[in-house]
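Objective 1.3, modelling of assemblies. Example input:
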Amino acid sequence: MEIDKSSKRRLIILCIDCELLFVMSNNFSIDSILAKRPRKSLIRVFLQSSHLWRRFHSLGTEMIVTKSGRRMFPTLSVLISGLDPMKNYVVTVDLECIELKRFRYSFHQSKWISTGPGESELPSRMFVHPDSPARGSHWMRAPVSFDKMKLTNNQLDSNGHIIVNSMHKYRPRVHVIEQDGSQTRHTFSFEETEFIAVTAYQNHRY
Amino acid sequence: MEIDKSSKRRLIILCIDCELLFVMSNNFSIDSILAKRPRKSLIRVFLQSSHLWRRFHSLGTEMIVTKSGRRMFPTLSVLISGLDPMKNYVVTVDLECIELKRFRYSFHQSKWISTGPGESELPSRMFVHPDSPARGSHWMRAPVSFDKMKLTNNQLDSNGHIIVNSMHKYRPRVHVIEQDGSQTRHTFSFEETEFIAVTAYQNHRY
DNA sequence: TATTTGTCACCTAGGTGCGAATAT
DNA sequence: ATATTCGCACCTAGGTGACAAATA
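Predicted structure (tokens):
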């Protein structure tokens, strides 16, 4: 394709094999666009408060769930790097049921033990971070907190909360989805954030 | 410029004299893009709760301002139409000082009267609606409320609140700014939303 | 017995008007 | 006098753990 590099007219541009699209101004040069072309970089996601998460994890993290929806404690919060500052992303969280077993808390042993097979799992609902969609620069600027996310054990929930089976074990997954039409998805999870959903705290030793 | 209309490769396109940009998928046809090309349409902004605003207006609307910032009552809220659903916009509000006079409230006459020349006005700060930037479809979906906006009389305010001179008359202006690089700005205001900034209510007859 | 549910008092954050005290 | 500042009591919305009652 031929391009008049000096053109300053109002245009939309098509670059072959580019992966990023820009909002362009009336006045721009082809060179300024090419200069902004994305270099591949590795997306990284770091868990915040990992110290706290690990303390709970060592005791067996429990997460209260209620019919009306309960926030998580600790709150899931991550630092993201390696995004394209100009590109739009949607960031979501879902819960992966990581063992198809039912658990119960043994007061004797002060620990969780698995008992029999668990409920079969439907794919988890997605919690879409309310800032979505936003540019990479926004997501990387500060930790991204999922404190508004709520868990429920109500299979018929109509408030958009994340549905779980009580006494089952889950681990949150963070998804970073590129909004360039490719919908490329990058998924991250952290071992220390796994938890067992409960309707009342079992371990009273926190 | 030559374009292979059947191409399905990953590209960025160049259209001359287009005004709208799209996030494109890997697979698309030139025709599908052209079909989405914007038709010019008129942006309109309608005041919400205009009945309430008019009731206050007929008595002389007062708006409390404090050092730490005070929300407006009534809240400014507008319905927007005529945007391009796919285009990004920033929506802001500022305050226009509509009479360079100082006012005082006459208890005798139960009305505001002007007294002498007012303070000279610096250009007002902008309140950027927190949803900005967002697509036209978002702004048009529901009334856009500026309830988080706060007014202050502290000329040294460092919280980003809108600074006003007490006992002066203002009228909010809504700006809809196209985020296509042209930064085209559409401005709207409503007579019935004019008010006098006060540090304490003067008219006790509300 | 093991689990779930609903209720409740408690806490917090933040917005509000009012009136006393102060400032111009 | 007029205008501003400040503190305060009040209200609301929403999140929390505890516990008693209900469920299975």
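Residues 64, 70-71, 73, 200-201 of chain B lie near DNA strand C (CB under 10 Å from a C1').
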